[in-house]
């Protein structure tokens, strides 16, 4: 299975290629560098593996939730490659890709959504060791978040942004926490390969980002009310 993947849902972007069981990847630091680096890194991993886009089985991208501009970029690049090579697309939830990094049977993923909110979802590993969503993805204020019963391993930037609020909401039921973890193309490729095997790919023209929240920024009046500048 040869799967090219792109993850640009956060400022920590990446590109990966799963080829014959081997994984090649490139990291992109800083959201401002995503647009110029993604295609360069796509070409680099394909060249390193000695593959053409037409030799891929699928193209996968981190569909979000995350930064709107990044999601549109990842989706657009994946669509362009897939259309040119007549491939199906795997739209992978970025929170699920983050959960796959955690060696725990039950994972709570929460990432900073800005504007005083967080994206979150809970996952449980299936028989193949892949995370399956139990709840979410959702977008809530940290103070409105409700953790399902049981113990969970937590991961994601929300735990760095609101440590006290989330500690109060999780009530000592976290077996560990990794606030440093971010979604990566490495896991997007693995999940995309699983989707390809299950025949869950979509035609390039039907691939869409997973926005969860429609609002992208505060209005001027909202910023002023929160003590910001016009």
Automatic annotation (TrEMBL):
Residues 31-146 form the Gcp-like domain. One of its GO terms (molecular function) is tRNA N(6)-L-threonylcarbamoyladenine synthase activity. Signal peptide: none annotated. Keywords: Acyltransferase, Transferase. The keyword Acyltransferase applies. InterPro entries: ATPase_NBD, Gcp-like_dom, T6A_TsaB. CDD domains: ASKHA_NBD_TsaB. It comes from the Bacteria. Its EC number is 2.3.1.234. SUPFAM superfamilies: Actin-like ATPase domain (SSF53067). The keyword Transferase applies. Pfam families: TsaD (PF00814). Transmembrane segments: none annotated. It is an enzyme of class 2 (transferase). PANTHER family: TRNA N6-ADENOSINE THREONYLCARBAMOYLTRANSFERASE, TRNA THREONYLCARBAMOYLADENOSINE BIOSYNTHESIS PROTEIN TSAB. This is tRNA (Adenosine(37)-N6)-threonylcarbamoyltransferase complex dimerization subunit type 1 TsaB. The gene is tsaB.
């Amino acid at each position: 299975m040869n799967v090219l993947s792109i993850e640009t849902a956060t400022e920590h972007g990446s590109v990966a290629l799963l080829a014959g069981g081997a994984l090649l990847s490139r990291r992109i630091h800083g959201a401002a560098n995503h647009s110029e680096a993604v295609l360069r890194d796509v070409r680099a991993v394909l060249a390193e593996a000695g593959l053409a886009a037409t030799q891929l089985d699928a193209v996968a991208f981190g569909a979000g939730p995350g930064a709107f501009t990044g999601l549109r970029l990842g989706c657009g690049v994946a669509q362009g490659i897939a259309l040119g090579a007549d491939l199906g697309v795997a739209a992978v939830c970025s929170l699920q890709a983050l959960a796959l990094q955690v060696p725990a049977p039950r994972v709570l993923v929460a990432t900073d959504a800005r504007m005083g909110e967080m994206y979150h979802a809970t996952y449980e590993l299936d028989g193949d060791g892949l995370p399956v969503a139990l709840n979410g993805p959702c977008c809530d204020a940290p103070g409105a978040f409700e953790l399902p019963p049981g113990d969970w391993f937590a991961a994601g930037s929300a735990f760095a942004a609101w440590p006290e609020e989330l500690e109060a909401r999780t009530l000592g039921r976290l077996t560990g926490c990794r606030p440093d973890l971010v979604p990566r193309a490495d896991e997007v490729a693995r999940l995309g390969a699983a989707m390809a095997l299950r025949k869950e790919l979509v035609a390039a023209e039907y691939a869409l980002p997973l926005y969860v929240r429609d609002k992208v920024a505060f209005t001027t009046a909202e910023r002023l009310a929160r003590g910001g500048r016009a």
